[in-house]
């Protein structure tokens, strides 16, 4: 769902303003005294288990790498065929990530390798379903880092953005940051940055309810005024 951490509520698509950025932009976010950087693409490396090789991925939301559960490449990408089936080391969390092959990956974009965060990205969610990946929620309703995220747990999401970047640099896993035109989803009520979160949802089964409502009118228990609206009912 579209989640507003300020409102602590899911919001509809029509309540989301899509702000187009041409590149690096500092934006005000509720709850933060300093403006937050958007419109950049950060590249970093995942090291291959039991190997001196690495796979470089890029993201506009570096803090979400704490929830990565796989890296995806296109099955026909010759650059990675020798690594099919390997696992990658997560530098901050006590787990390894599988390298999966999926045709949704655009070979021509970046390195052709995509980090997969199923619980915090709409496209990654679909990849997670297809490959039966874990769905790790690492951002809570308040916009704080949660779960098995080591020293980053408890940080506000955009404070974690800076901290994760600094930690990647310390481990020599950071590769580059460059301008990236993008669309930032903003809640038009709270002006908060919309966070994609997985939430339980419920639906009303309307067939029995509609039948009861129709019977109420036909029996005279419910009167529609004016009568010309009975047909619509």
From TrEMBL:
SUPFAM superfamilies noted in UniProt: Nucleotidylyl transferase (SSF52374), ValRS/IleRS/LeuRS editing domain (SSF50677)
Any one annotated GO CC term: cytosol
InterPro entries in UniProt: Leu_tRNA-synth_edit, Val/Leu/Ile-tRNA-synth_edit, Valyl-tRNA_ligase
Keywords from the named record: Aminoacyl-tRNA synthetase, ATP-binding, Hydrolase, Ligase, Nucleotide-binding, Protein biosynthesis
An example molecular function term from Gene Ontology annotations: aminoacyl-tRNA deacylase activity
Reaction(s) catalysed by this chain's protein: tRNA(Val) + L-valine + ATP = L-valyl-tRNA(Val) + AMP + diphosphate
Residues of the Leucyl-tRNA synthetase editing domain: 85-143
Enzyme class: ligase
Highest taxon of source: Eukaryota
An annotated GO BP: valyl-tRNA aminoacylation
EC number from the UniProt entry: 6.1.1.9
Pfam families named in the record: tRNA-synt_1_2 (PF13603)
Family: Belongs to the class-I aminoacyl-tRNA synthetase family.
The protein's name in its UniProt record: valine--tRNA ligase
Organism per entry: Triatoma infestans (Assassin bug)
């Amino acid at each position: 769902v579209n989640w507003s951490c300020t409102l602590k509520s899911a919001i509809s698509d029509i309540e989301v303003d899509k702000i187009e950025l041409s590149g690096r932009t500092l934006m005000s976010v509720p709850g933060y005294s300093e403006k937050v950087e958007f419109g950049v693409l950060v590249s970093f490396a995942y090291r291959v288990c039991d190997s001196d090789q690495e796979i470089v991925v890029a993201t506009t939301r570096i803090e979400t790498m704490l929830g990565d559960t796989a890296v995806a490449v296109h099955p026909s990408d010759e650059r990675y065929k020798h690594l099919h089936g390997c696992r990658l080391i997560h530098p901050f969390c006590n787990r390894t990530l599988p390298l999966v092959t999926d045709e949704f990956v655009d070979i021509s974009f970046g390195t052709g390798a995509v980090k997969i965060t199923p619980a915090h990205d709409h496209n990654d969610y679909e990849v997670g379903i297809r490959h039966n990946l874990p769905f790790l929620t690492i951002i809570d309703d308040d916009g704080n880092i949660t779960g098995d995220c080591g020293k980053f747990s408890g940080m506000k999401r955009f404070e974690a953005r800076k901290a994760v970047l600094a930690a990647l640099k310390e481990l020599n896993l950071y590769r580059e940051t460059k301008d990236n035109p993008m669309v930032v989803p903003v809640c038009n009520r709270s002006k908060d940055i919309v966070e994609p979160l997985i939430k339980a949802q419920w639906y009303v089964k309307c067939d029995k309810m509609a039948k009861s409502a129709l019977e109420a009118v036909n029996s005279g228990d419910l009167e529609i005024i004016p009568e010309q609206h009975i047909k619509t009912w």
